């Protein structure tokens, strides 16, 4: 439609072709923009770019890093195939990706309840509020989240009913990047 409009206004096929090339460049730029988020896979972020006043302002980080992560998985498999030391198992990769799809489906279903519970706890039971624009808040929160994640993850290994949902993550016969996608649907409720 845009091409037809431009053709009518400038009456020049060359102008339309230039516009299509520009659209292709925009899509290439959008593709490259996906890779600027790759540092988030390793927490290499600027604290001031990840400070938000309200929960609804926080971007979906998984959505931002899925493409770089997928590229790393493919690159890992190419290296494995070229090294001939390990055998590439497609069924293991498909299983991991299938678990990820179920995990994401659960995330979509449970997200509203998670936000509601968060808001109720925040509004009714918070003792104090930290200044959201402070780098100290970011640093304290990073250490606090890491501390809590350690203990919750450890309990996932030691408490039987938590292990029942977490063992899915450890069910692969190989250790590779795709295993990180192999999560239980209930992982959201049993993790920090």
Automatic annotation (TrEMBL):
Principal cellular location given in the protein's record: membrane
Swiss-Prot/TrEMBL keywords: Lipid metabolism, Membrane, Oxidoreductase, Transmembrane, Transmembrane helix
Highest taxon listed in the record's lineage: Eukaryota
GO MF: glyceryl-ether monooxygenase activity; iron ion binding
Protein name in the entry: Fatty acid hydroxylase domain-containing protein
Compartmental location: Endomembrane system
InterPro entries: Fatty_acid_hydroxylase, Sterol_desaturase/TMEM195
BP term (GO), one: membrane lipid metabolic process
Organism (species): Heterotrigona itama
Keyword Hydrolase tagged: no
Membrane topology: Multi-pass membrane protein
Domain (Fatty acid hydroxylase) ranges: 139-189
Database matches in PANTHER family: ALKYLGLYCEROL MONOOXYGENASE (PTHR21624:SF1), STEROL DESATURASE-RELATED PROTEIN (PTHR21624)
One GO CC term, this protein: endoplasmic reticulum
């Amino acid at each position: 439609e845009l091409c037809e409009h431009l053709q009518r206004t400038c009456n020049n096929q060359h102008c339309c072709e230039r516009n299509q090339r520009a659209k292709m460049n925009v899509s290439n730029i959008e593709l490259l923009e996906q890779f600027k988020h790759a540092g988030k896979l390793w927490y290499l972020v600027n604290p001031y770019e990840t400070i938000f006043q309200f929960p609804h302002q926080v971007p979906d980080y998984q959505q931002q890093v899925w493409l770089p992560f997928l590229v790393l998985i493919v690159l890992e498999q190419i290296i494995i195939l070229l090294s001939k030391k390990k055998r590439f198992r497609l069924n293991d990769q498909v299983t991991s990706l299938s678990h990820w799809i179920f995990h994401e489906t659960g995330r979509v279903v449970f997200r509203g309840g998670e936000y509601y519970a968060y808001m109720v706890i925040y509004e009714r039971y918070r003792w104090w509020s930290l200044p959201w624009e402070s780098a100290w808040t970011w640093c304290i929160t990073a250490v606090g989240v890491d501390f809590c994640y350690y203990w919750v993850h450890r309990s996932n290994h030691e408490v039987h009913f938590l292990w029942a949902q977490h063992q899915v993550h450890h069910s692969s016969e190989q250790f590779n990047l795709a295993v990180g996608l192999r999560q239980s649907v209930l992982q959201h409720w049993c993790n920090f």
